[in-house]
Amino acid sequence: MSEQLEPLKKSEISVNDIAYTKMQTGESVGLLGHLKGFLVPFSKIFKKTLTVEYPEVKAPTAERFHGRHQLNRHPDGLEKCIGCELCAWACPADAIYVEGADNTPENQMSPGERYGKVYQINYLRCVFCGLCIEACPTRALTMTNEYELADESRAKLIFEKEDLLAPLRQGMLMPPHPMYPDMDESNYYKGEVKQSHPSQDVK
Amino acid sequence: MTTEVVDMITVVVDGFEVSVPKGTLVIRAAEKLGIQIPRFCDHPLLDPVGACRQCLVDIEINGRAFPKPQASCTIPVEPGMIVKTQLTSPVAEKAQRGVMELLLINHPLDCPVCDKGGECPLQNQAMSNGQGETRFEGVKRTFQKPINISSQVLLDRERCVLCARCTRFSEQIASDPFITLNERGALQQVGIYENKPFESYFSGNTVQICPVGALTGAAYRFRARPFDLVSTPSACEHCASGCDMRTDVRRGKTLRRLAGDDSTVNEEWNCDKGRWAFKYVTSVDRLTTPMVRNASGELIPASWPEALAAAAKGLKASKAAVLVGGRATYEDAYGYSKFARVALGTNDIDFRSRLSSNEEREFLAARVVGSTTTYLDIDRADHVLLVGFEPEEESPIVFLRLNKQVRKRALKVTAIATKLSIGVEKLKGEFVKVAPGAEAAAIASQSLTSKSVILVGERAAESAGVLSAVAALADSSNAKIAWIPRRAGERGALEAGAIGNLLPGGRPVSDASARVDIAAVWGSNSLPSAEGKSTQEIYAAVNAGEIGALVVGGVDPLDGEDSQSALAALEKAFVVSLEIASSAVTQHADVVLPVAAVTEKSGSFLNWEGRPRSFDAAVQDSLNRSDLRILSMIAQEMGTSINLGTVSAAIKEISSLGKWEGTRASMSKVSASAQPTVSGDQFILTSWRRLLDLGTLQQGEENLAGTARKTVAVISPKRAGALGVVDGDKLKISTSLGSVTLSALVEDIHDDAIWAPRNSRGSQLLVNLGVAHGAVVSVVKV
Prior knowledge:
The complex is a heterodimer of chains A (about 200) and B (about 775). With about 200 residues, chain A is of the alpha+beta class.
């Protein structure tokens, strides 16, 4: 047995040992045969064109396309992110870096005790797999359909929290501000806060 | 050494036989086989309690089965026992699932904001032994959260699973029963007394052993997740206990430190200072570049070659001496020791930047260097005598070890002190009350045996004759001596010869063959033969113009007895300062060289036993160099060479030196000085440093400082009556130099004495009064 398992030595194979067969050639197709090949492009001339002139024209992506991330807000403007780092934990590319911090009465950034003080996504590492948004317990992190993420330096492709935060919509106030009166974080998570209350505007 | 004969018992767990010593708990017998039974309340160093019921297993003894599953953490093994865990018994498995379900009924689902998330026994065991889905549909019990049970420990009551680990630790290990389980049933919760926060020196351990996130540290709360952190095994730099530690770093910044597991030293505990005092490393006034004083007297940032050249030039110009603080690592101290002898050609080096005496120096050479007394000797002692040593304040792990023996077998502890302390009270120790300065006579009247241990603190040097009396007592009784300094580096500095009368390895300077020994390894022709000066003598020599240059590393001039002369000497001499941050020394220095802090370098400390506690750099890629490396560079610049570029080179050289086998230096007997008589408003001052005070390494730790004990002046009931003082009255203690005003506390203290903390807020005795122990002060009620 063992001898047969020895690798073949170079000298043991000669050119004559290798079997070969002559290549098969088909029958001649003739002139008509060649023209038949052009039928496909000719037939497309009269059809509607699918080419999009990017970047002049930007076609919408699929609805659930994985684009740039966004950090969402509660309807009163408080941030949804609680700095739990589960997104960073889930990330297979180690693209997310988060530091949590305490909410204080003077500096309430999100409902509850904790908010994300530092939030960075490195788009040079991100593979847009979406595991981070699946991990997010408060739906703070979601993905937008924005795909134009090219830039001229490495540093610019590390997005900070300000770059990722969703814009303020109607009824939202810029945090920090106190939570909605007589509501706690569980009311926020249940969607019972619909918009900001006048008393929340500390300015 | 006797080995105890242990009865072994064989039991069967899940079909596998295992032999364990009699008295072993079933849960540990299973562990020995590698079978893990889920648990929360069980902790190998705490008494079993069976509080959480998570470890239920089926047990059968000699064919008779228990009718219901039993808690394996409370039942010791017995012959003929057959144990079926969740792996083989469906009944045990179902019971465990049920218990887990009950524990989770009221446990909040706030893992994303909980600090324990990711390293939580409840989270892990709910995954491994729990149900995937909850059947509970009601509203969970909630409490107001979190509550501060001290300024550094926070309690989230709804997360608690009532395992009683924290309360058992506080009662059984620390003897600080400040927390307890209140109420009953679903409302049961951990609580503190109404007016008494959880101000234990060991409270951090409860945070570490909490199996859920109910107890969290205020400083670490919401800072990081376990997967962020890079953990490095390290050693504690705060005191001479020598705790094994773990340092967790994220992006170059230490975020937390945990007690390591070393059964021979700190078991699994440490003190709050070791756990929570680490921000000094990143304190704002860290030195970043070398600095050189220019012609107009200003310190100007300079390049390394420039600074090294300036240092070398100044040190070569005149006679120089070395002052190295007690915080240097063993290898750094060895570097200083060799630098003084080889590069500066002098024995004028002293690591004792504190109150010290020449009697102490002789004592260290005769009794301490190379001593092999260990924690094990405390475990086996029949009687422990404390001299000038307050274990809870000055070496907390020694206190825990004493406390363990006191609780386990009523170890007899005797403290010779001026004031009864909380620590000695907890140790149920005999308090031998003496006047400050009169300790020696009390020591002589003690009777010890060869199994006794005398624990001598660094404060024993503050009264003349005490160390002579200790040596005489040890000789007459054959008791063991252990010298327990406060600072982590002192024992290492002693062994490294960073003191005027000793060379490395405990070789006496006065012994010609010892000098030849060292000179051969160091490759130098001869070593200076005259014994060196002590710290105070060095300052005096500078002021007298005999010494012109000083190399100073990690010294606070305000720690000594005559800080005025120290500051004058630093002003006068050419000073090369190796420091991590700007200090009183760098202000007067001519060349300032920034060095690496403990977390940025590798090395080791020798704890009070002389046991090496080595550590690696926790913060990688630091540009800061160790003292050792910088001293090597200065020596090179001076035209000599100490060849100690790296820590491993130093370790290699130290081990090649070995220990001194020749005759030890002897100690001359010093008799106690005459006791001053006091009357009227005169008192004799006595003091010690508290664990949590204004120490340099505790800077920037507000949460930690919040649990420091109150700053008070303690006087005896008799003198308080004479002065008309009650608790809380203000007392003004003054000397010719200055005064401090503190609240009075009437306690058990010698009638002649008044006690105040040495370096606490509002009471920095050496700075404010110029004295700390044994001096007569006047006290008035204000």
